[in-house]
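Appendix B. Chain record.
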Amino acid sequence: MTKTIRIRILWSLLAFLVLIVGLVMATPYLINTTVVKKQISEQISQWMGLPVTVRGEPVVTVFPYLTVKLKDVEIASGLGGDEPPLVSTQTLRAEMYWLPLLLGDFEVRRFNLIEPTLELTKDVDGAFSWDLRKGSLFKTDGSSGRLTLSDVTLGNFRISGGVAHYLDRKTGEEERFSDVNMTFDWPSTEDVASISGSASWRGEKVELRAKSGKPMELFAGGLSPLSVNLSSPMFSATFDGSAATMSNFQFEGDFSFDTPALGKLAQWLGRALPSDRDLGAASLSARANLIGASIAFSDLDLKLDDNHINGVLQLDFRQERPMVQGTLASDDLDLGQFVRVPASLQDLLDYDLTKSKAAKVDFDIRISASDLKLGPVNLGQAAASLMTRDNQVSFSIGEAYAYGGRLEATFDMRQSAEDPSIMISSLRAKANGVSAGGVTREMLGNEFLNGTALLEIDLQAEGAHVSDALADAHGSLSVVLTDGELQHFDMDVFEAALQQEQDLDSETLHAGNSHFDVLSVRGQLANQKLDVEGLRLTSGKRALLGVAQYDFATEALNFPGTLAIYKSSDPASHSTERPEKEIPFLLSGSFDEPRISLRKVHDAVVPSDDQILAPGVPSEISPSEQETGASQSDAGPIDGVALPLLMSAPQTGLSIKSPVIKP
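Structure tokens predicted for this chain:
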């Protein structure tokens, strides 16, 4: 190539460059800004199906991109009327392709809304301000009649420094988002669509990342790969799977969630948990199946504080009352942290049963644990369930091995059909082989009574508050303790007072303790009174037996009983041998200040229980054994002494008739 040719090529290139630069510099003067403003506003209006208003004059700039800036732009609300605009922004910047624009083709590569205000309003009839179904972005499928996305070129949308206001006029729910920065990237309907950005909500920055592999399939009702990540300093949640838009939005895939403080997260969301504890770190991972407002978790792995739970769980928010169903298992589980403990006894008594938090959600939860705790109550290995329906609550411990024995209990509470302000409650509980000392120590902080317990309770109550229910409580109870100790009751002092016919020194009586072989109590509770139909306390050769009444309102005790002294110290033989001595007495006053007096023989009151369960006692007593004579006690003969004894006897399990000793 000669030097002349090289010079000509160089000058040609230089001339072309000058032409291009000149053309670019002249572009703002060559473009009809009125036409551009009209074309862009019509394009947006056509896409969204909503009127678009541009009041300011466009400004065209060249660098770094060919950009048209529209001032004072408003997109009308889908609710119409006098509603505030769906979008209002001082500046809408449209970055355009340069050559197509010169040819009259207004092809926008990116929209950027600078500091816009979005009014997202849902009306009482269900209509919403962001309804875009009338625009060209959507079309109706001819075969299925479903609304799908049109095959259009969308490009890239950005929101910078925006503000969003959400209002549901039916529920009154209202939220505000500030500092909204979002980027929506979808070059064409055949490409991957993604959205990313952040916003400030309730004082915290929330970030969103989402991507759809086949967005057209997703909008058409088919399956599309979908990944979503939502995070803030309060929490992090991730979906990774497949999604579809049938009649409801559906998702199936892996889901994970974690938060450094569940209690603070609940407060931030405006859903404070019913717990006095500040719940700490929590995490959840599972296979999730979401259909509309219902989500099911399988292969669930849940961690909350020191609790680690596995199982299946379903949350359903399609009805007014949320539904929680599941079957969960754990090695060590403490549910006490989810129970709101009253600050004082008076707060407990004043608690309104009609406003139970559990009654506002429908629960159907079954839990099994190797070590289950309910606050101060340690149930050990247990299986429990919680069910609530409307204003009915049922909590059941189907089987628990705790305190050395076996427990089962059911608590039911429902609204009265006659008076909705009254709650009807019932408690049924059984315990076998349980350590009474362990129970009283953990629940009351004082081991005033110990021994191996056999317990059965059946109580009912009505009332709006706990105090009302306690005042109305009625039903039956049966307690048998074996090989235990009763604190603050000295049997030697009590016997000496009877033998010597002396006044009872209450301080001396309370100063000592009494070991017993058997303590058996069976009675009825009603009208704030406990009527003990059968009471027996056996300690070596001595036995206290009779009936009693205790008034909870006045704390008055009335115990007409008998102190029986036997030749043998074996409590099982007491049912077949006659006492060597019987001393009728009357114990009255209160537990703190008891009074004792001797009674006449004909005043003797004895229990009438005909059931007895005791080890080593024959199942039948011959008439000769029942009528065998013996020396009368110093206090004289008694009309008849029934020996009610309900005793734990795993080695025999005998159930026999109670003999009656006659003079």
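Further analysis of this model is presented in Appendix C.
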